[in-house]
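# step 3/5: fold
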Amino acid sequence: MIPSPDPITIPQSYETLPLTHVKVSHHPLGAPEATQVIVVTLNRPEKQNAFTVEMMDDFEKIYPMFDLDERVKVVVLTGAGRIFCAGADLERGFKGIQKERTIDHRDTGGRLALAIYRCRKPTIAAMQGSAVGLGMTMSLPCAIRIGCEKAKYGFVFPRRGLTMESSSSFFLPRLIGYSNAMYLLTTAGVFPPTSPHFGRLFAETYPDPEKVVSRALELASEIAENVSPMASYLSRELMWRNPGTAEEAHLVDSAVLYHMFTGRDQQEGVKAFFEKRNPSFKATLEDDAPPNFPWWTEIDTGRRGKSARSKI
């Protein structure tokens, strides 16, 4: 089983963190302290950014930091070089996997996906190049995906004798519908991001890889400057953690909304609107969460971390 994480110490700068196969940058680049937009780059271009255990370790280290760091508003995830991610590193293979009971195993891709999913800060996947397998599934818990029209994307697991991973059996059909998901996994083919088989998985596509990244940064900056992080996070959770019926959703929505009516972000948002300026949202889950949060029963796959010290 995954042990409980150590208390999380939030760094002044993310650019100085010792990471192995992932690079973290501020936007704008070189800012001495954490910025509202953080760029996470898969950094094995010589191996087409193929996924490694070290990459999973890096994600499990940095995403809990983003979750707790109120300076960070949006994360942009991209890849170094021409390829976003070629999936799991098949050259390394699956040898050396620690022997354990099947019921205790937690797949590495799933641990990465849950790190993104559990973070209250949204991630925009700027998929500047092709992606298959785990390279695709890591994008599913992201809030937005932007693709390159010259690239190919696919869920190729059955062509490698494997099944879906990274909790993708949960995310994919909810994002694009069961019919599209069934087609993609039955054919296990690769397609351009404009293929109808992806439905609206890609929010936007561009022919130029550099435009994919620049657009993601532009969108991230616009979100960071104008959107309440707490309201955005709770809205996403209301969709992902929907209780299942319209009536049950009405009860949950009503309780959350009633609390937000008198929240400090609501007051600031309305004031900024009338004053014709960008808002300065300050609400946090620690201090301002609705009384029914979380409204779901949390599953302990390895508990999320807590901050080791006060806010910066």
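# step 4/5: annotate
The chain has two domains: 22-226, 229-288.
# step 5/5: archive (pending)
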